[in-house]
# Entry
Amino acid sequence: MTNKIKILSVSLSNERSRKYPADEIELSENGVIGDVHKGSGNRQVSIIDVSHIETFRKLTKARKTEAGEFAENIRVSGLAGTRVIPFDRFKIGEAELEVTQIGKPFHREFSEIGHYVMPRTGIFCRVIKTGKIKVGDEIQYIPKTYKALIITLSDRASKGEYEDRSGPVIKEIFTDFFNKKELPGKIKSEIIPDSSDLLKNLISEAVKEKYDVIITTGGTGISKRDITVETVQPMLDKEIPGITEHIRYKYGSIKPNALLSRGVAGTIDDSLIYTLPGSVKAVKEYMTEILKTMYHLFFMLHGIDVH
# Structure
């Protein structure tokens, strides 16, 4: 983004109504100090771009609004035309905010007007790093890029004796998922032999690099070389058994061999991880079910209530 984002006003209030302008606001880990929305929730700090206020005024022929009248903490210029999504970040000096929600209701004074600009454009954030914010400060916009790692486990494919087919299918499905959700995505693929040590190292590195999701394919059967589940399961912080139980039940009721996969799903730190079988058909079936809840799980994993 080439536009500079600049703070035009900062406001706060200790009551649930409009906010009032201040020379500066100070962010604690729970939000704006002295503001009614300070707390442990996801709506600690609110932002609106002045262009949306001007659009509102043109549509409604409303009077000129003062800083804080839309109950915003920060009024900015330069965000017009930028598609902000949850998990994007704003860096303001030492302070840093993470977007948790887009859209907020109008202040009661404007509720009867019917042109609802704010619900589509108001931005809620939570504090990631504390600091002071004042009029004239510039904001660095840091867009979120979702990162996915696909690991194919196959002795033959790792030697080039066999073409990996399941990994590319997962990548294609992921690409389509990111495109449909309009989410910036980066997908990395690896092929390794059936080695517990190699798998553990790859997963640990991906978790350290804050990959959002890790998918393995292969090694979920019962042969002596099938080591994926034994490797991954002890690494999980939390297991999500319902996902794989549902998949086995749904497809196993049609084709009993599907019941033999021992795949698991869960979380490691800030990463989701799923272990899939090695066949292309099974991969398509698993991904169909996994993607139904994956986006919601991103929010759950980061403690954002989207109910």
Remarks:
- Residues 111-119 have pLDDT under 50 and may be disordered.
- The domain at 5-142 is CATH 2.40.33.20 (M1 Pyruvate Kinase; Domain 3).
